[in-house]
Amino acid sequence: MKINSECVSITQSENLAVVTLKNPPVNALSKAVRVGLLEALDAALANNDVDAIVITSALPLFSAGADISEFAGGNLSPMLPEVLNRIESSPKPVIAAVSGNAFGGGLELALSCHYRASFKGNKVGLPEVHLGILPGAGGTQRLPRLVDAKTALDMIVSGAPTPVVKLGGVFDVIVDSVDELLAGATTLAADAVQKGPRPVSDIELSSTPETAALLDGYAQQVAAKTRGFFAPLKCVEAVKAAYDLRFSEGLNKEAELFMQCMQTEQARAQQHFFFAERAAGQVPGLSKEAGVRDIKNVAIIGAGTMGGGIAMNFANAGIPVKMLELKAEALDKGLSVIRRNYENSAKKGKLTQEQVEQRMSLLTGTTQYDDLSDADLVIEAVFEKMSVKKEVFTQLDAVCKPGAILASNTSTLDINEIAACTSRPEDVIGLHFFSPANVMKLLEIVRADKTSDEVIKTSMKLAKTIRKVGVLVGVCFGFVGNRMIEVYGREANRLMLEGATPEQVDKVIMQLGMPMGPFTMGDMAGLDIGYFVRQSRKAFIEHDPSYCVVADELVEAGRAGLKVGKGVYLYEPGNRKPIPDPEVMEIAARKAKELGIEQREISDQEILERCIYPLINEGANILKEGIAMRASDIDVIYVYGYGFPVFRGGPMQYADEIGLDNVLARMKYYQENLGEYGKHWFEPSELLQELVESKQTFASLNK
Ligand code: NAD
After folding, report:
1. pTM of the entire predicted model
2. Which residue out of 88, 128, 254, 491 is catalytically annotated?
C-alpha cells in the first residue's frame, strides 16, 4: 500500500494497516493530514489483505488537534468532521492507538475510531473552549456516548486535560506504558476483526430526568462561574443536544453552535491570545551563539511579601533557594509565612504533608552575604528605594561568582542605574514578579541597556521552568504593566472627583470583565503603595493639582485599604467585601469644590472610555518607544498580570476590535472637553494616529 502524503504513512503488518501521523511539531490536523488520512483509509479499504486499520502517531504526542492557523480561512476541504465521519463509517474496524496526548481534534479523531487503546500516564482533552469555541468535529456528540454526562461536561466546559485512566468508557485497552501500546493495540485489533466496526454514533443516548436535571444545574453553575464568557454555555448546550437529538441532528446542532462561537469577538480575542502567548516566548535578534546558563540554585534578598512568594516558585520547581535578610527575626518571619502558605495548601488537599516538608527543605536562610557565593541567580526583593537597592547590588557584586545572574524585582526603579553600581552590568536584569508571586503567572523580564543575550535567554527559559509566562520589556518607569495601570488609576480617581462613585466605576470595569474595579484593587494592594510612588514622582504630576487628591487624603487619614479595614471602601473584620462609604464622596465633593471642578452625573460609557482608552494610548506610546516588542506582548501582560479578560484578548486586541479610529476620536474629544486636565493627559499617541491614518491595527504591526 502506498499513498502520496508527506504527513501520513501506511504500512501493512499481517492483516492490519497501520496508519501513522507525522506532522511535526504537534501533529496538527492540517489539510495535508486530512487528505492523507482519507487516502490511507481508501488504500486500506481497497486492500483485501487488510482486515482492520490502526491509526497512530510517529511523534511523542498523538495529535494536538486542529491547525489553528487554518481558522483564517481558505480552501480547507476536506474538513475534519467529514474525514471523521468517513472513518467512523468504515466497513473495516478502525482502532486508535493513542500513543501520546490527544487534544481537541486529536481526541475527536480517536473518538471517530471504533476502538481505542492508550497507556497509563497519558492525558487527553477537548480544550477548544480556551479558544472561545467548542469541539466541532463530533466531540460533543461522541464523548457523552462513552462517558457519563458529568465527565463529558467537565471535559468540554473546562477544556482541562484528563488522565486516560479516568476514561475507561473511552479506552478499551489501557496498557502500562507506551512501549506496550503497539502490542496492546494489535491484540485489540484482533478482537475488533472478530467483532467488526463499532461506531460510537450507533450508541443510543436519551435524556433521563437525572441527566436533564444535571444539565440544567450545570448550565446555571457555568453561567455564574464563567461570567462574561460565551463559549462555555454553548458547550453545555451542545452536550445537551447529544441527549435530546438523534446523532446526525446532534452533529448539525454542534456545527451550528460551533459557528455561533466562531463568529464572536470572543473567539477572535481568545485565538489572538493563544498566538500572543506563544509569540511572547520568542525574542528576535538575540545572538545565536549566546548560550543558556544553568540555574541550579537561587538566592533571594529580602524575605518579605514578594521575596517569600518568589522563593516558593523555585521550591515548587525543585530548585534550592537561600534567602537573605539582615536580621534573623525577619528571616524567621519570612520562612514561617512560607510554611503557613504551604500548610494552607495542604489543608485544602493541594499538597501532601510530605510535599510541604520536601519544599521547605529546599528553603534555607542566611544573614551573611558571603553565603551567596555559589548562587547561580540572585533575585533582590528589598524595599523599593534606590539607595537600598544599590547597597544590595554592591554587596552582591563583591561576593557572587562570575556568571551569576543578578536580578531585581523592582516595580519602578531604573535597572540601568542599579546595574551601573556593579562591575558586571551585563549580568543584571529585572525579574518583575506580580503579587502574589507564587500565584500570578506573569513575569516581566526587564532588559537593561547592557544585559547580555545569554542572561535574557536564561531568564526566558527560567520563566518556563517556574511555570510563568515571561514577557521581555525595556526599562522605563513602571515598565509595561504598571506604567499603563498608573494611567487607569489616575483616571478612576479623577472620575470620582468629577462625581462618579467608586462603586459605579468598579461596576463598569467589572462589566468589561475585569475581576475587580480599580478602587477595590487599590484597597487590596494598599493605598499607601500608590501614595509613596506619588511622593517620589512630584515632578511628573505637578501640573495636575487634582492628581489622586482624594486617595492622598484617605492615606493621610490612615485609610490605607483592606489591611486596615478602610480605604476607599469600608470593610468588616475578616470580610473582603467592599462597603461604600458616603464620607469618601463628601471628601471628593469638597476637593472638587476647592479645585473648581464641577461635579456632574457621569455615564457608564464615559467611565469605560476614560479608564481604558488612555491605558490603550499609553500602550501605544510604549510600543512606539520600543519598551514592548509587540502589541500582543502587552496583551499577555494585561491578561496574566492584571486579570484583563482573556475573552477580550487584552487591551490592544480590544482596541483593534472597537476600532482604533474610535479610540483616537474619543481621546481627542476628552482632550478638548476636559479643560487643562484633558489637554495634559489625553494627548493621543503618535503611533495611534499613524495607525488610524494608514488604516492599520495593532495586530498588523507584527505581520
Ligand atoms: P516587603 O516590605 O514586604 O519586603 C521587603 C523585605 O526586604 C523585608 O522583609 C525587609 O526586611 C527586607 N530588606 C530590606 N532591606 C534589606 C536589605 N538591605 N537586605 C536584606 N533584606 C532587606 O516588600 P515587598 O512588597 O516584598 O516588595 C519588595 C520589592 O518587590 C520592592 O522592590 C517592590 O517594589 C517589589 N514589588 C512589590 C510588589 C507588591 O505587590 N508588593 C509587586 C511587584 C514588585
Report:
1. 0.93
2. 128
